[in-house]
Amino acid sequence: MSVFDHTPGRLSALDAEVVRLVRPGGNWRDLPADFDSRRVEQIRRSAAAGDGSRSTYYGKLALDRPSYTVSTYFNRPGNGCYIHPTAERLITVREAARLQGFPDAFRFTGRGRSRYLQVGNAVPPLLAYQLARSLTAGCVIDLFAGAGGLSHGFAWAGNDVVLSVDNDPMCIDALRGDGHVAAAERLDLGDPDATEALVRLAREALGGRPLATLVGGPPCQGFSTAGKNLAADPRNRLVFAFLEAVEALEPACVLMENVPALMWKGRRTVLDELTRRLGALGYEVDVAILHAEGYGLPQLRRRLFIQGRRDDVPAWPAPHRQVVGPAQPGSQPGWDGNDLRPRPVDVEEAISDLPATPASDPDEAVGYARSSMSAYQQWARGELIAGDLIPELAFVTRAAQLRLEAVA
Ligand SMILES: C[S@@+](CC[C@H](N)C(=O)[O-])C[C@H]1O[C@@H](n2cnc3c(N)ncnc32)[C@H](O)[C@@H]1O
After folding, report:
1. Is the distance from CB of 295 to CB of 115 less than 8 angstroms?
2. Number of domains present in the structure of the chain
3. Given the CA of residue 219, which atom of ligand 1 is nearest to it?
4. What percent of the chain shows pLDDT beyond 70?
5. Both 163 and 223 in a single domain?
6. pLDDT band, very low/low/confident/very high, at 408 (cuts 50, 70, 90)
7. Residue 144 CA, ligand 1 centroid: distance in Å
8. What is the mean pLDDT of the chain?
9. Which of 81, 139, 220, 253 is catalytic?
10. Could you tell me if residue 382 is inside a domain?
11. Residues of the domain holding 185
12. What long-range pairs does 279-282 form, CB within 8 A, spacing at least 24?
């Protein structure tokens, strides 16, 4: 048994020194005050000015905790918490993929930034699987699919992912190489004629079957432009292109993923417009911020989901592990602060079977360092399926959640 993509980002001599000096669970604060780095100096100054603690910057992972959010910059130590907990290097693409809930069998493609984008942009497939379980299975189309975090999870939950679309050829290669989706097509969804092309592709892919769910994670800057035509603003174009696709394809359910910032006060105009228009199209709509660690992921990742349903009221899977410091507890469906749930999966359980010595090329196969020490590793290695790893799920509707809050 072997894995691919086991290569880390390269370190400058200065960054290699940082990697040596920071302790597991630590960050830039572990460096001596006279450490000669402009980036560290910049971080010190902004932390002193009260612009946040910058506590993940130059962070080293701790074996006994989940990771912080895996972004698309895990090749840079100064941009997050990406230093390996015990080896003197950054985490590899494969280790980041493990933290993101991708199984080892999944192969990423391309050079340069490609693999970092494919991993860091994804909805963790294991989380997508649990979201999919709350919806009626059927044919699914995934827009802005990336390497297919959502596509994967929906396929595991018994859906037929008939079409995945992205404008990045490397993502299309990764999707086609994998076999969980029936068709992957490159299309610029920001193009004014894209909806027409999409409808043609969708008709072909569906072959007369109804579309159960349209899923997608369009990039959205979520600017507040109150009083203006939000859909005409080029910064919002892709998110409204998703809405146009909903109008044209008329799925029974809609699931859109984005960053929680879409819900922040003063930036809510895009979210409000989206939910309003989905409602006008006949969908029951709900918005949630899900905490990945509550769903068995070894990562503190918060993402916003909009669910629209014509067949029923929106329902969400309840977290089955502890949620760490929810910023807005009311946005996480099914979270009642019940600490009797097991603690989150930690970094050791997620990656400790991968070798400390990385590969010299992402397409080089490397063997596991040891036998699996956790159910999570067994799942990543293909020894368990998602349904064996994830316990029986409970589903909650927002109305039930609000009742819970009223009782508390
Ligand atoms: C946040 S990622 C989506 C990740 C995906 N949902 C997953 O789970 O893996 C956004 C994706 O939108 C794609 N994208 C950006 N602009 C696009 C456009 N104009 N047309 C089609 N896809 C686009 C990017 O290539 C990227 O893969």
Report:
1. no
2. 2
3. 10
4. 96
5. yes
6. very low
7. 4
8. 92
9. 220
10. no
11. 123-343+387-407
12. 281/246, 281/247, 281/308, 282/310
